[in-house]
Design brief:
The complex is a heterodimer of chains A (about 100) and B (about 575). With about 100 residues, chain A is mostly helical. Chain A has helices at about 5-15, 35-50, 65-85. The longest helix of chain A has 22 residues, at about 65-85. Chain B is globular and about 85 Å long. The chains are: A mainly alpha (about 100), B alpha/beta (about 575).
Chain lengths: ~100, ~575
Amino acid sequence: MDETKELLIKCFSAVFPQLRTEDIPQATPESVKGWDSVATVTLLAMLEQEFSIEVDFTAVEEFGSFPSILAYIQRQKGASAVSREFAKPLRVPGNSE
Amino acid sequence: MKLLDALEILREPPPPSALPFRIGLACGFNPLHFETLVRAEMRLSMPDRRIEIDIGPYGDFWGNLARLEDLEKQGLDSAVVLIEWPDVDLRLGMRHVGTWTLAALAEIVEHGNTFATKLKSAVERLSVPVIIVAPTLPMPPIWFTPGWQASTFELEIRTTLAGAIAQLAQRPNIRILNADRLDRLSPPSNRFDAEWELLAGFPYKQSHAAVLAEMLTLLIQRPLPKKGLITDLDGTLWRGILGDDGIDNISWDLDHRSHIHALYQQMLHALSEQGVLIGVASKNDPALVEEIFQRRDLILPRTAIFPVEAHWQAKSDSVARILKTWHIAAEAVVFVDDSRLELAEVSSAHPGIHCIQFPSKADSVVQVLHEIRDLFAKGFTSEEDRLRLESIRRSPAALDSLNRGEGDIDHFLELAEAELLITFNKESVDARAFELINKTNQFNLNGARHTESSWHSYLRRSDTVFLLAAYKDKYGPLGKIAVVAGRHADKKLVIDIWVMSCRAFARRIEHKCLEELFARYAAEEIEFNYAPTDRNGPLTEFLAFLLGAAPRPGCCLSRDQFEARSPRTFHRVLEAVNG
């Protein structure tokens, strides 16, 4: 299992302690008792902290299931990896670091 | 603490027998996961309690503050009043749009005055411990002055609020979160989260919420202060090696670039003034040590230090002797030395001791000074703090050996001119009595600790009896040293709490207290809510002697038994009229 999915399962497990680990990858608000707006907000806060991402609050509607949240995080992490790559200083031939 | 850690801590249920610890939180914003963080921090701090936090509706600061009064009637352990600028005036927040005109600014300042007056009168009505947090977030750019210039409006509103809070801080049940420490731990520029404020009415960045939760927990459940500090000399109290460099080449000043040692001496002097015991453990020539302590430029005077262990033996042996002289456990003591090796040696012989390495760099010394201050910090200082060192220094050396049966203890005590000042008045709540209950280990009936509110509720019960004893003899005063509390029905007393300072051992004060209780309540029997602890050996031995058998929970002592076994006492007893 990749690290992102593993950590996301841990987050779900903390927010929904009654949820069995094997059921988490299929979790949706309909299937999980207690997945209300407060739980969504708690999840959001935790994702920002655990994955070092900034959640775009206009995209909250994407947070409708475990798979969709996982996909969102993977996209965000991919995007931040690309921007980190662009942020590296350019190597100028002849210049030593 | 991160939110994930907090939720994992809270997954573990408290023990089934856990008593609730109720906190009322009054704020105007939506506390969301801040509440989770506070609960988790409190759980770590009080693992045997079930933490309950009562939160009112969003946006109703005054309603939530008023609710604290109702909650107090139902049994509240602590109240937290967390103010942010929109509570003073909604225009000082981001979720409400109004006018930021010049006329509005004067009105906002006026609202600040009203807010301060109302806050003061609402909080003054509470008697439980109250924690107040002044606004932690920046104001919006509402004033017409540039951001780098303080506006007179802003200064006025800040001063008004600070004035009201400073007045509240005078009350014994009110503690104010230290803004200076908050600034160090949570930089002001990284506190406000506009996204979260607009999405959910929660204005804090997570790192800020975590720091606030941690500080609030320390304010609610104040850690017990340490009682004594043992310091090394060379490289710690001063720069230089006394034996090698000679007395004249030892320094603690700016000229010799050794000012950090002067700062350290200054701190130890301040601690000794507030009743902290200061001892020395140094591998040194004792004659040289005594000689340098005659230097007039020492900031820590020789009289503030007792005892001085200066010789070439292991430091752990010195520490053991100092602990014995002080009658306190290693857990209550801090040991400071510049040598990691010495720290390791002492720490391995005395596992509970708090060791600090004295650093060589000024920045690190400042950190250490903050750490030391925190370890010994108290909400108040008492007469007993002032008496502590003197009473240990004057403690008659013969007392210990006499009590081991080596001599005539009766004769010694008879000539001691002992006086016991006793109060049975439970109405005037005594801070020293509460302190004794929560810090005494050796002569302690059962090790039970109280929160301020549980202690006050216990005293308020109509059947509660209370005894507080202060002692003095010809060797000097010890101050208030013993507390007994229990319940009285017919001819029976049930003792729930009994603590006595270890400085008062061997003077038969415990016998006299029982004698007074039997007499005052015409009791035929006293039942002890006894429980063995890791540390209450002295009390266990005392009860075992009177009972003629090892004490058990709920053991009873009859008046006849007591009179037959109790040795003679020689105290003159005075009863305080008004406590």
